[in-house]
Design goal:
The protein is mostly helical and 106 residues long. It has a domain of 66 residues. Helix 2 packs across helix 3. The chain starts with a helix and ends in a 20-residue tail after the last helix.
């Protein structure tokens, strides 16, 4: 908790997602996403593909090219907002949820 106490905390989310503030100590940031982007990113690629693959679920992952396109588009939006937020931070720390890892490189 020492790191969290000394840093500016930001929780990023898509505007349409069912987000609720978990803590007053965390600033909330949002970016716009269309219903189609949300469906392709979250319901499609993340929930139907990555979730069963990464959590050894007994369900065969489903990967569609259209969901992958939405997934990349939404992750690019996340990246743009994060870069802006971290611009003046000397040593930024970013915790990434498992469904974001495939596009989180370099």
């Amino acid at each position: 908790m020492a790191v969290a106490a000394k840093t500016r905390r930001l929780w990023m989310h898509m505007t349409g997602s069912g987000f609720r503030r978990m803590s007053r100590a965390i600033r909330c940031g949002a970016f716009g996403s269309s219903p189609e982007e949300e469906a392709g990113y979250y319901e499609g690629f993340s929930n139907e593909g990555l979730w069963p693959l990464c959590h050894i679920a007994h369900t065969r992952p489903i990967f569609r090219a259209s969901d992958w396109d939405y997934y990349q588009r939404v992750n690019a939006k996340f990246a743009e907002v994060l870069i802006d937020e971290m611009r003046d931070t000397e040593h930024p720390v970013v915790f990434v949820q498992d469904i974001t890892l495939p596009c989180f490189h370099g």
